[in-house]
Amino acid sequence: MTNSSKVVEKALEQGKGIFRLFPNWVPRSFCIPGKRLKLHPDDYYAFGAHRGGIDERWFASTTKADNGPETLPDEGLSYIYFKDGRKEEKVLLKEAIDIMGNDILGTDVMKKYGGWLMFSKFFDNMEPLPHHLHHDDEAAANVGAMGKPESYYFPAQLNNHGGWFPYTFFGLNPGTTKDDIRKCLENWNKGDNGILYLSRAYKLKPGTGWDVPPGVLHAPGSLLTYEPQRSSDVFAMFQSLVWDVPTPWELLTKNVPEEHKNDLDYIVSL
User: Which CATH number is associated with domain 125-270?
Assistant: First the structure.
């Protein structure tokens, strides 16, 4: 039995089936932290200012964050914490499930899914995010990934302030056509591409939440949000300018096959 196997077995026994996990922080270069994650003020840029501030905390994650070429090898991955006397040890949750998945998740789950296919997070932004979507299973499969359904909940206990824009644009106005969206993408480098004119905003109420199916455009507002989701980090940003800050084209095409990076019809079909 390997040392990791021993740690996982002991942690499972000690917790009576419940693992203790280390906090798991993720930065985003295109976001401004809302600073409601209870971090020390000096720690929000612990990954380096060039990586962006920490605005997410991931829970029970076996999914690596996809933050570009400087993403750390274990970024986004949760670690199990185990203490035996004075000795502290850790092992990746992903590794634990690879080793003892039948004991942790059950044989039915392992047989059907082969592992843990979800995680959750807090995301905490001072400003709204760009209007974006997450791929469905069919579109995500084209880049070797899974689709990403998700849900939002706005915990009152963690929203001591509402940020700069506690409203979320959701979906598209009735009558909006694919040509309308295509024109927005054609205008990407002209400043504001105007996609929010095709949507409508809803005021966010703490203590409530939404279901967010894949393929639906949404621009999350500035409340701290609890978000359970599929274990995937696929997205496409459709808004070119957010609060006068340009969105890189690469954040629209990050999870688009190489041959379709400039194929607007393909991108609109997402």
Answer: 2.60.120.10
